[in-house]
Amino acid sequence: MDDLSLTHFFELSLEELSSILVGMGEKPYRAKQIWSWAYKKFASSFDEMTDLPLKLRQDLGKAVTFTRLEPLLVQEGAESGTKKYLWGFSGTPLVESVVMKYSYGLSACLSTQAGCPAGCAFCASRILGFQRNLSKGEIIEEFLGMCRDQGERIGRIVFMGTGEPFLNYDAVMGAIDILSSPEGYGLSRRKVTVSTVGIPGAIRRFAKDSRGARLALSLHAASDEVRDKIVPLNKRHPIREVMGALREYAKDTGQRVTVEYMLLKGINDSAKDALKLSGLLSDIDCLVNLIPWNPVPGLSFERPDRSRVERFQEVLLRNRVKVTVRRSLGGEIEAACGQLRRQETRDIN
Ligand code: SAH
To answer: What tens digit of pLDDT does each residue of 274-285 get?
Structure first.
């Protein structure tokens, strides 16, 4: 059992670790050495850090908890090579995350909350409701747990797992800061994408804090009438407000944003919907990512067939909107977009 009164290693910034070390009479440079073990060599304990004096390893163990998060379950998709991991954090929230294999390398899809409070009608994460936010350290552990398991460097992170990253803003930004720090995992911030349901205040805040990290907006509809039905938060933050914040973000950061548009048959996938979307996006530098809906047991939406997806794409292209269709990996193990959830009702014993 963890002693919860101890600080957990993965919650600590480099400066905080340095000051703990200085308090122990150590030189502050040790902090970088320890970070290198944790974030570059994926050590599982202070004991493994063999170039630290034994006494220091013991003292650290008394002041700071350093645990290794082990997956409760790992599933691998035979076709895509996608791997899905199930994690159990203290207080037993179960959270899933995924590593996808692309031609350009490995990409991690991280969860930020156990369950999701946003409640989008089409998403598996809503089914069991919201349990709690993950801490900064837990988000980092999810990632490092997958790094240990993969034989190859994970070069990208997308915050597109369970949860709404902007409803757990500080933890997500804290995790990005550590994983992108040169003394930490050293991932370029440009290789990190945060996907949000669209919370205007947080989008503006992200414009200031992102420092190169990318933004994706889950728009999914071009009118409030449709979006209100599938994204409950739209009633609080209607499209006009969300797009206003997105335009400001694009202007302030000079970054192109990704607009995710999930296609639900008969709901938002007509040529007319595509035309409306083109109009809405005409004055913003963005790339639309079309995501044909991935089936979720218990939810009664339908995935449009290929010809409908292509027609939607053509209308956007004709109106000079940049667009790609997402190749959702991992459907064979329910690891594709929108299929992650807390899994206690499924197949772990
Ligand atoms: N809360 C964040 C992250 C969600 S997951 C957000 O809303 O952006 C990443 C993307 O998958 C979102 O665009 C989400 O709306 C979409 N998604 C959810 N369920 C889906 C499903 N069943 N099929 C396809 N995409 C889905």
So the answer is: 999 999 999 999
Question: Please, which residues have CB within 8 angstroms of residue 13's CB and are 6 or more apart in sequence?
Answer: 174, 177, 178
Q: Is 337 a catalytic residue?
A: yes
* Burial letters 335-348, b for 16+ CB under 10 A, else e: bbbbbbbbbeeeee
- Give start and end residues of each alpha helix (H) in the chain: 14-23, 30-35, 54-63, 136-149, 169-180, 200-209, 224-230, 239-253, 271-280, 306-318
Q: Label residues 121-151 b or e (16+ Cβ within 10 Å = b).
A: ebbbbbbbebbebbbbbbbbbbbbbbbeeee
User: Nearest-CA neighbor of 284 among 252, 311, 312?
Assistant: 252
For ligand 1, whether the C-beta of 334 sits within 6 Å is: no
Instruction: Pick the catalytic residue from 26, 96, 141, 260.
Output: 96
Is the pLDDT at 243 greater than 80? The verdict is yes
Q: Is the pLDDT of residue 3 over 70?
A: no
Q: End-to-end distance of the chain based on CA atoms, in angstroms?
A: 21
Name the least confident of 116-125, 126-135, 199-208, 221-230: 126-135
Averaged confidence pLDDT in the chain: 93
Token look-up 């209607």 returns 238
pLDDT in tens, 289-308: 999 999 998 999 999 999 99
- Give the type of residue at 220: H
* Å from CA of 338 to ligand 1 middle: 5
Residue 262, ligand 1, Cβ within 6 A: yes
Whether 120 is catalytic = no
